[in-house]
Amino acid sequence: MQVHYTRIRKRVNANYVCIQQMKSVRETLEAYLQNASTQNEIKAFLKPIGGWIFNELYFYLLIVCVYCVLLFVFSLACLVFILNLSRQIKNIDGLLQKVNILNNAEELL
Fold first, then answer.
1. pLDDT band for position 1 (50/70/90)?
2. In this structure, are residues 31 and 23 in contact, taking their beta carbons and an 8 Å threshold?
3. Of the candidates 53, 31, 52, 33, the residue with the CA atom closest to the CA atom of residue 42
4. What secondary structure does DSSP assign to 7-69, as a single string?
5. How many Å apart are CA 65 and CA 54, to the nearest integer?
6. Predicted pLDDT of residue 16
7. Angle 25-34/36-108 helices, nearest 10 degrees?
8. How far is CA 103 from CA 55, 79, 88, 90, in A?
9. Which pTM was predicted?
10. Are 32 and 38 in contact (CB under 8 A)?
């Protein structure tokens, strides 16, 4: 029984030493991704996927861009309309003041 116990202890100690020497998953991934050949393989793998995604989303991106341009034009048109309306209100207010002055003058005569 004693022999069996020492084998287990040696095995446990060996595993403990291995665990202490092991790198974390993050360190392992960083070391793997720092390799230039790995980076080239990843780029070569993702290039067709990126092209496919762009081709699928191109129409929607175009619609969003057209929408933004139309929204900008519509906002400018509303701004111009409000400015013209404000100017017309000021002109009408001035004309009403002149009419009131003339009415008051007629009443005095």
1. very low
2. yes
3. 33
4. HHHHHHHHHHHHHHHSPPHHHHHHHHHHSHHHHHHHHHHHHHHHHHHHHHHHHHHHHHHHHHH
5. 15
6. 52
7. 90
8. 72, 36, 22, 20
9. 0.47
10. yes
